[in-house]
Design goal:
This protein is an alpha+beta fold. It contains 17 helices and 41 strands. Helix 12 runs antiparallel to helix 16 (436-460) and helix 12 (349-390) packs across helix 17 (463-481). The longest helix has 42 residues, at 349-390. It is elongated, with a radius of gyration of 41 Å.
Length: 833
């Protein structure tokens, strides 16, 4: 018989753009759901979930022997994950790496790569087992706590989500690129996240700000710094934000004045080997100058990158260049995207925690239902056994009289009102269960099960009891796995305070008339006797002189007051460091000065205390007192410090608590002392009031806040000076002409500076040609006001003293020299440390 041909199917016309659109959507959803994004409940992507489930099925538990990685890879790709073996092994490798995972889920033995980007050994060489914390992801999986579905060929069942007793999505984070979207969730500290979950359990109305009091921010496995809290708050409140991560670096002082930058922690996911290559490349291309050597001294004890600098290099500048040009500082873009009911959603911090708690509630309820069903089934059987024991003789007789098991079962059901399950259990009961002890065990077990059933039913009937179970389990997880935070969070976002990177050290800060500034270690200047020649302190340009000299710590702030009445703000360590004889750097390269603006005076400040004041004095004798905190946040171009009369300028600024007296000294040798209470506090932009009534051609050269039992040191241009007790200057009213401070003659020259001193202090004087002498105050005689003084420093015919500064006893050992110094020779020779 001839075969009848099948009717031809007519093709259905489809627009190619519609087909491509549908195919692309199918592909996109496959990637989003099946590969790239984690589930909000267990924080795992499908490949991670399948890997851990396969390990559990293979018995690769934390307390069991290791097995070859290749065995697990075979099981994963053969049963659950129909992809290449490289994809499965790469997943295992990452789950082992303690620099990738904050809490590694797999315990590995062998080479699993390094932070230098080294590849892991082949899977046939490495061995693995589950980490202990990974068991918390799988606990109770056999108690119907989660749904299972068919694997790729429907030959196996795999979990669609893990029960997860730990908040894995937050503590280990996740990153992945899907189609049209990406996720990048940073890891967190387990203890902090558990505290946040507990807070949300106790008070569901808790806000993100409340949660941030316990969840400080991300906690990366490689530690390092997070600069600023603004990005953290933004990410937690919106689901998106940017974190500035910075390496932990220190500056060490080496012999010979050299400095070394040590890097001990890197930002998350930064490759150390590539970082070193990048630094070397920048040095070769001369984009960063000042680095003499670069090496990696990391070992099993920890990371240690060594960057040696040249002798004249500024560590601050180089470190800032490295932050800018390399991955010593990176930006971590937070996108808290996860699957919620198989739909991708960007979630806020509270939502992430809430979804995990909802998952735990569902797991506890399903586990409780499973336990209740098992308990009820067992109790039902025990009830039948109990019935049989209570009617033991009749049951035995009935069974003995029955011709077959089916007849015995039917007889038991009919005579004792049992069901088939109970009757079958009686028939399968061993004879040893009929002993008295075994009969008591059956009754006891039955009664215990009844109590358990009541408890389980009570849990299912009470949300509070469910929450209490979750709370207890979270507390147990915290007790077992919580550790200290690794990543340090810096409150201020722009910069890490550079003083955290350097050793605190006293510096001599010098500013020249033409605006060159530098800092030099105080230790380079040794004490000499009165009348010495001093040592070379600064090489100046022709006709340039040093006009300001003081000592401050590298951690201090410096307020720069200018001739137009503005104030600018820098830190001492931001000034260029140079040798005593070096000229320094033009201050216009450090401050944003306008045309014609020059720095006239500087004030070192450690903290901007609210109760402190600044006392200012101008060349024309005007004084003003203003709260210090008014000057704590100047803008880039400076802010107004004082309103000046035309032709006037600031000559002195002192920090004070409002007590004591103001002392003004003039170039012609006059001085006035008046109580600070006569100068009422004024606003930042105020002009001030008259402090001293000057004679024609005279001007104020210096100002001090003085106290009784101190002495006033006065120094003149020709190197003469004297000490005079403060009490010799009677207290006058503000605005007077003052009294004689020093007799100015052609021999000693006009006054260039005054200082309030103690016997234990030292002073430093500097000349217009850059000579500096450091003297003990107790070598300078105490004499009357109307005298010329004694020679302090020998100056040349064309040289003159231009500035003095006091070194208080806190900076010395109390004997007029620095701790550890030998007594200098009696001559005035230049003695270097």
């Amino acid at each position: 018989m001839a075969e009848v041909p099948a009717p031809e199917e007519k093709p259905v016309p489809i627009k190619i753009e519609d087909e491509m659109k549908q195919a692309y959507l199918d592909y996109a959803m496959s990637v989003i759901i099946g590969r790239a994004l984690p589930d909000v409940r267990d924080g795992l992507k499908p490949v991670h979930r399948r890997t851990l489930f396969a390990m559990n099925e293979m018995g690769l538990l934390w307390n069991k022997p290791y097995k070859k990685s290749a065995r697990l890879v075979g099981d994963v790709i053969g049963k659950y994950h129909p992809h290449g073996d490289a994809a499965a092994y790469d997943t295992i490798v990452r789950l082992v790496q303690d620099f990738s995972m904050r809490y590694p889920l797999v315990d590995g033995q062998g080479n699993f790569g390094s932070i230098d980007g080294d590849a892991a050994a082949a899977m046939r060489y490495t061995e693995i087992r589950m980490a202990r914390i990974a068991h918390e992801l799988l606990v109770d999986i056999d108690k119907e706590t989660v749904d299972f579905g068919p694997n790729y060929d429907e030959s196996q069942q795999e979990p669609l989500v893990l029960p997860s007793r730990i908040p894995n999505l937050l503590i280990n984070g996740s990153s992945g690129i899907a189609v049209g979207m990406a996720t990048n969730i940073p890891p967190h500290n387990l203890g902090e996240v558990v505290d946040g979950l507990t807070m949300l359990l106790n008070n569901p109305q808790s806000t993100v700000d409340d949660l941030m009091t316990v969840i400080k921010g991300p906690d990366f496995p490689t530690a390092a710094f997070i600069n600023g809290r603004r990005g953290i708050g933004e990410a937690y409140r919106t689901g998106r934000g940017h974190l500035q991560l910075r390496a932990r670096a220190f500056v060490e002082e080496q012999k010979g004045g050299r400095q070394t930058i040590l890097v001990t922690e890197l930002p998350y996911q930064v490759n150390k080997a590539r970082l070193l290559e990048k630094i070397a490349e920048l040095v070769r291309e001369r984009r960063i100058e000042g680095i003499s050597d670069l090496r990696d001294e990391s070992d099993r004890e920890g990371m240690r990158m060594v960057i040696e600098l040249k002798r004249d290099a500024d560590a601050r500048v180089i470190l800032n260049q490295l932050y800018t040009e390399t991955q010593l500082q990176v930006t971590f873009g937070v996108i808290m995207l996860a699957l919620v009911d198989n739909q991708p959603r960007v979630l806020k911090l509270k939502a992430l925690l809430q979804y995990f708690l909802n998952h735990r509630r569902e797991v506890v309820v399903r586990r409780t239902r499973f336990g209740l069903r098992k308990a009820q089934e067992r109790a039902h059987i025990l009830l039948g056994l109990k019935t049989a024991i209570e009617n033991l003789d009749a049951v035995v007789s009935l069974i003995r009289a029955s011709a077959s098991p089916q007849e015995a079962k039917a007889g038991l059901i009919e005579k004792f009102s049992l069901d088939e399950v109970q009757a079958q259990a009686i028939l399968e009961m061993r004879l040893q269960r009929l002993t008295g002890l075994e009969r008591d065990k059956i009754v006891s077990e039955y009664e215990e099960l009844l109590r358990l059933i009541v408890d389980l039913e009570g849990i299912l009937a009470s949300d509070k009891k469910v929450d209490e179970i979750i709370r207890q389990e979270l507390a147990a997880v915290r007790a077992d796995y919580a550790d200290n935070r690794r990543t340090t969070i810096i409150d201020e976002e722009p910069e890490i305070a550079f003083e955290d990177l350097i050793v605190e050290e006293d510096m001599v800060v010098a500013l020249t008339h033409t605006g060159y500034i530098k800092r030099s270690p105080l230790s380079l200047y040794r004490s000499q006797h009165r009348g010495g020649k001093g040592r070379k302190a600064m090489t100046t340009k022709e006709e340039d002189v040093v006009k300001k000299l003081f000592v401050a710590s590298t951690h201090d702030h410096i307020l720069f007051f200018t001739n137009i009445g503005k104030v600018h703000w820098l830190k001492v360590h931001e000034l260029p460091q140079a040798s005593p004889a070096a000229r320094g750097k033009a201050i216009i390269n450090l401050l944003q000065l306008v045309s014609g603006e020059t720095v006239t005076t500087m004030l070192p400040v450690r903290n901007f205390e609210e109760q402190a004041y600044l006392l200012m004095a101008t060349r024309r004798g005007i004084v003003k007192r203003t709260e210090l905190n008014a000057y704590s946040n100047p803008r880039a171009g400076g802010i107004i410090a004082i309103s000046l009369d035309p032709g006037d300028e600031l000559i002195g600024v002192e920090k004070t608590d409002g007590k004591g007296a103001a002392f003004l000294g003039t170039r012609a040798g006059q001085a006035i002392r008046f109580s600070l209470e006569e100068v009422r506090p004024m606003g930042r932009v105020a002009r001030g009031v008259i402090g001293i009534d000057l004679e024609e051609g005279d001007n104020v050269v210096d100002m001090e806040v003085v106290f009784p039992e101190r002495a006033i040191l006065t120094v003149t241009e020709r190197g003469y000076g004297k000490r005079t007790s403060v009490e010799e200057y009677r207290l006058q009213g503000r605005g007077g002409k003052g009294i004689i401070n020093v007799r100015v003659t052609e021999k000693n020259g006009p006054v260039v500076g005054i200082q309030q001193v103690l016997d234990s202090d030292e002073i430093m004087a500097i000349t217009s040609e850059g000579q500096v002498i450091r003297l003990r105050v107790d070598e300078i005689p105490v004499i009357g006001r109307a005298t010329q003084g004694v020679r302090l420093i020998e100056v040349g015919e064309n040289d003159r003293v231009v500035g003095i500064t006091r070194l208080d006893e806190a900076r010395t050992d109390g004997n007029g020299k620095e701790s550890g110094e030998e007594e200098p020779p009696e001559t005035g020779e230049d003695v270097q440390s």
